[in-house]
Amino acid sequence: MIGHIAKTELQTLFYSPIAWLVLVIIAIQTGMTFTDNFGSIVESQASGYSNTGISLRLFGPQGLLFMLQNNLYLYIPLLTMGLISRELSSGSIKLLYSAPVNNAQIVLGKYLAMMIFGLTIISIPLIYIIFCNFTVEHFELGAVLAGLTGIYLLICTYSAIGLFMSSISSYQIIAVICTVTTLGVLQVAGTMWQDMEFVQDITYWLSISNRTTELFRGLICSEDILYFIIVSSLFLSLTIARLRVIRQKIAWPVAWSRYIGIFALAMLLGFLTTRPYLMSFHDATHQKSNTLTPASQKILSKLDGGLTITAYNNILDRNYYLTLPKARTFDKYRFRQYWRFKPEIKFQYIHYYDKVDNIALEQQYPGLSDREKMIKMAKYSQIDTSLFLCPEEIRKIIDLSHEGNRFLRVLERENGKKAILRTFDDNHSIPTENEISAALQRLVMETPIIGFFQGHETRDYTDPSERGYSRFSGDIQNRHALINNGFDITGVQLDKEVPDSIDILVIADVRTSLESSEMVHLNNYIAKGGNLVIAGDVNRQEYMNPITESLGVTFLAGQLVKPSRYSTADVIISQAGPEAHLLSAPYFYTGMQIVMPGCTALAYSSKKGYRVTPLFTCDSSWNKLEPSNFIDDTIRLNTTIGETIQNHVTALALSRRVNNKEQKIVILGDADCISNGEIGRWRANLPTRNHSLVGGIFHWMSDGQAPLDVRRPLSQDNKVFLDADELPLIKIVFQWIIPGLLFLMGLFIWIRRRGK
């Protein structure tokens, strides 16, 4: 009987002008969207630009399927409005009741018809997907079909909702209004009562908003699939119960108790699907872009036992909104990729107020005490002030003054080992996989320690000035700083032996000669196989060459220059060679450029027992041996004093086996290239990557332990096998012929129906 009812309902649908009108409109909209997006990719390719990730660009979260999803709520209510209300208004429902058919068969038959019609709807974008499968290189068919599945499940869910709304009134317009209203409520359900802990998980789950987003990205998650199944089943069950009430004239208290019971059961099942240990995932993308990288997975595999993530939220900090009560559920979902591999993660939230560097807040509430500011902010956020601990109370739990009382999280294992996960002063603010996994790595292995030599006016890792090295080393507010990527930072003196705990020693821009005792301690460190980073600078050869003499490296006299139309001649653009890429592939690549503003060239010998690898070089340059005014004067080669144009080495890597380990040394001809001023500087027409230089050096020297390698495979769907002159034909087919054929088919069936 279900099949018979479905067949009858399908005939009614396909004889209806509304159904064909919906199909034609969808064909026109999807055709225009697809040809516009596809055409822009073809044209950019024809212009010589490269394209990456074409599959999801066309059909992903911002592509064709996303557009279709945004319009479905307008179409499906028009198709479902008469499913049952038509029977109620015409009285034909009584004929169904008199037939040997029960309520469930009636509902399931009509729903099956809508499921089949849903297949007709998704067949339209399926045409474009098949087309791209033959015209796009290595098209990601699996990932795109996951998104198309999301569209189909959404159609089925909308249909179940519309079917129920069609049963509550004999007026079809009321069914349309109620369906659209219900869809609107489900769209915003995730923001309702999020400050009430006992219902926030339920309302967040109930929200239909963004349910297809991960499917559009190629990630199939059991929670999303089961959401559509449970919500569809909920409204189908409500429809069956509704028909039973009409058929048996059940009293409203009994009817409502059944409705509430059905709803409660659905919510219980939905709640269970959100439990991390019950979730399953499949990433259909080639790059596994929705999954943690192997490096992060390896860390989690070592993280046995429980893990608690405690957020300490200072309401006076600029990131206070991240874990307010109403944002907690969303905050937990930021760690969803980690749930997949460690579902027993627990979350705790502690709110407090204390003095923090927040200029905007000071300007907003000048002259107020910290408590008065807290009261203002709590009132603005509609939160009870009793939730916030005072400075004295929070310090009994944890002292965050060394972190500036900023928003942060503490990751703690069952064995008591802890690590700090920070937020950062950039547009994104929240930590990404790099920083989260680096913090987790501290819980499972020893953290490498970088010691910065202090004394003789060297570059200081605590100095925030342009000359200093704080930005890339110990700046807790910079997500790229080494301290946030798996290293500990400390200062080192050479008036005694370098501690065995130091894994890498940094000596940068020594401005006075080292004492003999300091040289002895340094040479002892090198002889033991200690790793070393040495950065020289212009006019420091006298002090730096004694340090590098035992390594077979010399800072050449003078200053390296190369005239350029984009900068003064003393600003050297150095390029990485293929050896640099082999040394530290995650960060160095052949042709990579760095700026070295004031650089000395390096000469080297292999006779000291080291394998020497030139990392960066500058071609067509020379050592300027006489004082020059680089701003006002034209820099010219002076061969009479020995200046010659040639290719000069500006950065070297040295390595050898010592004490059963690989000793690694990097020498830079310029100390400014990794200074605060240069790393944070943008130079017009000079696409440089000085920040990657830091990551590459220390990734190599820590044997790949840190910073983590979270690279993914390169996308393969980067090329279209069509030319721009073929676009007009494609537009005619998808914008005119396909919608036109659907229109003619609908017109033919309608005329034939009228004729009968």
Automatic annotation (TrEMBL):
GO terms for cellular component: plasma membrane. The chain crosses the membrane at residues 12-32, 72-90, 111-131, 143-164, 171-189, 225-243, 250-272, 733-751. GO terms for molecular function: ABC-type transporter activity. Coiled coil: none annotated. InterPro entries: ABC_transp_unknown, Class_I_gatase-like. SUPFAM superfamilies: Class I glutamine amidotransferase-like (SSF52317). Pfam families: ABC2_membrane_2 (PF12679), ABC_transp_aux (PF09822). Residues 450-542 form the ABC-type uncharacterised transport system domain. Signal peptide: none annotated. Keywords: Membrane, Transmembrane, Transmembrane helix. This is ABC transporter.
